[in-house]
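Give me structure tokens for this 333-residue protein.
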Amino acid sequence: MSRWHGLAWLRRDTRAADLPVLSPRCSTLIGRAQLANLLAERTFRPSDVLPFAGADAAACELAREAIYWALLALRERAEGSAPNSAEGSFRASAEATFATLWSETDGELLDRAAGGPGQAERLRAELLEKSFADFAELSPPLQTAAAVRLHALAERLIEPLAFPQRAAERAWLKRMQLSMLALVVLVGLGFAVKSLKARDELNYDLATSASWQASSQFAPECACQSPEQSCAACPNFFFCTAEEERPSIVFDLHHVEKLSAVVVENRRDCCPERALPLMVQVSHDQKHWKTVATRKDEFSTWRADFPTEKARWVRLSVGRRNFLHLSRVRLLP
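Here you go.
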């Protein structure tokens, strides 16, 4: 699936065929109506006490503005103007008066928005014959009643206009949630596969049956017995050489095996720099050694992958005078 097809899938609503397609201009007008009506509600129902009187009168004018934009959006939706006629649409909008828009709008639609048969005509005078100055001269109770009526009218006009946009937003959110769920599932599967792979690698670890021999021994009381790589006496490493030139540990696989990776876990409690530079070498006769990997940077766990080699012996060594101590070594075919 291409990127563009993926975006189209995210935007697609299962009910898209049943919803009207809003032009950019229509969406803009609906947004203006929603904003004006929101401001109206916050004006006559403020969360904090306003410092001056007359808020309800201002809310009336804001709701009136919201109704104007909603009626203009209804006209725009009905005309279904094409994108290339945007300039003409703006000019037509500028010429649309409130009275013109009211007369063009279906009467039954206006009555439903106003609250019932005949209610739209009762609100007509407030909408077409009053201004913000007229609202301000009303008594406080009348201002409040008018603000509530006009806000409700605007709300009922805006709701069906905004439905396609809200439906598209809900569809987008649902598809985003599905996409995130799919991503979480994929990540979970990735971790599961990685865990299974690690478990399988342990099953095929050649080091579990290989004997090992360090080039020297720093403290006899703190060393595991070959082929063990874990013992109570040494919780942080399974061997430790004395300080010497090119300290090393050699694993004997007992017969020639295929080898393609080595996983090395450094000493757990301290001194990770002592294992540097760490070289991994293989041999089939313990005389001729081939370097297959080298580590020069500090590490806690290092996995070295390399082209498959056939070898019986594997040697890990430090290319300078130092100690060598590791907590675990895995040899993978």
